Amino acid sequence: MALFTTLYSGSSGNCALVLCGRSYLLVDMGKSCRITVTALKKLGLAVGDCQGIFITHEHSDHVAGLEVFLRQHNVPVYGRSDTLDRLAGMGILPPAAEAVAIDGRCEEAGGFAVTAFATSHDVPCCGYRIATPDGRTMAIATDLGTLTPAVQKNLAGCDLVALEANYDLFSLQGGPYPYYLKVRIASDRGHLDNRACAAEIMDLIQDGCKKFALCHLSQTNNTPELALLTVHNVLLAAGITPGPDVVIQAQTRNDISPWIEF
Questions:
Q1: Residue pair 161/145 in contact by the 8 Å Cβ criterion
Q2: pLDDT of residue 243
């Protein structure tokens, strides 16, 4: 049995967790070490059972807690070579940290097999496709302005997909952000909106995936209710009814989200 959750997920910080047995992986650590470790303890998980931390990119909402965590715990860090170089230059990777570049190959970490794939963002960024020790497969893709063929290929055929639903377009356009920031968010190197997320989920359902987590919701330009409503409406229009057979969950911003089994 494999399980997925997020310790926190949103524009203020992101950390996802994939569990199989007692072993687990983390994807990103965008809030403090204290918040992250406290969440792990709430789940009954020991830091020593973490097989690796996989970093998507250098933005603070994905790495804010990493430096302190790595100074206190000996856990390997994985990521694109350019991202790891950038984190080292920023002083976020301590000299003693075990950093493993995961460019263009599948990496084994404690029985998990992980492949990175590029996502379209304004800094080098990636998502991850993860095969668990018990043969399940999931993928996580956040911080992407568009769904490229490479992203769609890596989301296809998974048992669970964690996908960004960052903003509602009308909320963004009518919201308080300055014009340049609205343009950045809505660009192909920005973030994914609810409708694009919903369209991809519809395609993935038709491909056989039935478990979805909506991640990285904006606090200003989205709500969990709006993201779920948009996805549900798109699916219902296509004759697909969310329910026990098609699980769609919006991840919580500041708290641990319920487990999704896959």
A1: no
A2: 87
- Which portions of the chain are predicted below pLDDT 50? none
Quick: pLDDT tens for 76-113: 999 999 999 999 999 999 999 999 999 988 999 999 99
CA distance 152 to 161: 11
What is the reported pTM?
A: 0.96
How far is CA 10 from each of CA 38, 120, 157, 215, rounded to the nearest angstrom? 18, 18, 26, 7
Task: Please tell me the distance from the alpha carbon of residue 252 to that of residue 255, in angstroms, as a whole number.
Answer: 6
What is the pLDDT at residue 104?
Answer: 84
Residue 117 one-letter amino acid: F
CB 147, CB 192: distance < 8 Å: yes
Between the CA of residue 33 and those of 38, 63, 65, 161, what are the distances in Å?
Answer: 8, 10, 5, 26
Report the distance separating Cα 17 and Cα 30, nearest Å.
Answer: 13
Distance between CA atoms of 260 and 262, rounded to whole angstroms? 6
CATH of the domain at 67: 3.60.15.10
Q: Output the CA angle 183-186-191, nearest 5 degrees.
A: 130
| Residue span of the structural domain in which 155 resides | 2-257
In a domain, 171, yes or no: yes
